[in-house]
Design brief:
alpha+beta, Ribosomal Protein L9, domain 1, Ribosomal Protein L9, domain 2, four-stranded mixed β-sheet, three-stranded antiparallel β-sheet, 7 strands
Length: about 150
């Protein structure tokens, strides 16, 4: 039985892929859960058109992400944090604080797309920005003692 996937399914395929599955798996699980549709001629045409239209939108999103990455460039974000005498900070620096610092500079990036290693002391760190599946960027973060 051929089906068209509506979402990415690990071990089976990605969105808009046409895959062959056993009839029971397709009829009893994938289609009722909304993960797939039957691969009829009309559904195949719809998927082909969706892929064609999405390619144009995806290219625009990718170029926007590249523009943001080039604007951020080698920017250094300064994050104030309360710290003890030894330089160890109380709490930790999170992606929310980095997203707020970027927002102050004029870049609205979702906190879920920011990853940073475990920050427990004052100093310089790097945070990874996942702007697009093909566009990754690193931003320098300086953790300083708050006054």
């Amino acid at each position: 039985m051929d089906i068209i996937l509506k979402t990415d399914i690990t071990g089976l395929g990605y969105k808009n892929d046409i895959v062959s599955v056993k009839p029971g798996y397709g009829r009893n699980y994938l289609i009722p859960q909304g993960f797939a549709v039957m691969a009829t001629d009309s559904n195949r045409k719809v998927v082909t058109e969706n892929i064609r239209q999405a390619a144009h939108k995806a290219e625009k999103i990718k170029t926007d992400a590249q523009n943001i990455a080039s604007q951020i460039g080698e920017m250094v974000l300064t994050i104030p944090a309360k710290a003890g005498e030894s330089g160890k900070i109380f709490g930790r620096v999170t992606s929310i604080q980095i997203a707020d610092a970027l927002r102050e500079k004029g870049f609205d990036i979702d906190r879920k797309k920011i990853t940073i290693e475990d920050v427990k002391t004052l100093g310089a760190y790097q945070a990874a920005l996942d702007l697009h599946k093909e566009v990754k960027h690193k931003v320098n973060v300086e953790v300083v003692a708050a006054e």
